[in-house]
Specification:
11 strands; 24% helix; globular
Amino acid sequence: MGVDYHVAVHASDWPTPAAINRCLGELHYPIVIAVVPGAMDKPLTEAPGVGGFVVTFEGKPVELEVSVTRLGPDSPYAFTINPELLKQQETHPDGTGHFIARPTGMQDFVPRNLNADLSELGVSTPDYGDGDYVINLTFRSDVLPWRAGWFLMAGMIKCANGLGFEFGDGFHGRAKYADWLAKKAADPDYWK
């Protein structure tokens, strides 16, 4: 099981690996996206090897669990269980009942609406649409990917005018959130 963090970026601000690496350097973040040199000036999602990012963090290669979605009619940023499944009640032999969802395939899931989800988090007037991007980073128990990933998120927020968010604690934001992520990522004691 993992914890997901996201950054939404408008298509007009979507960077190339070269641009994001240049900006990460200007911010003095100890991370570089490792991409095939011939792909450095292509959009991030077209760069070979970007599907799980390999970054260099504090001089060490770190593989991040990353996915990038370009929003469109057939590509929402996420899916959720169809609410109709949650209306199915099961009754136990003792007469008590509960609701349970047992999805059996993609037909049991519905697309999530990014702007509606961001509004629920408290983001005022989110305006993401077809063609915009959402980068998703999934973190597990290893601390090094968390630290590298938070620097990458902070860079995507600051360098690509992104909006960072996560649903577990409801954190979201732009520059101040990016500064918080970078500060925590830089502090090894925070992770003990």
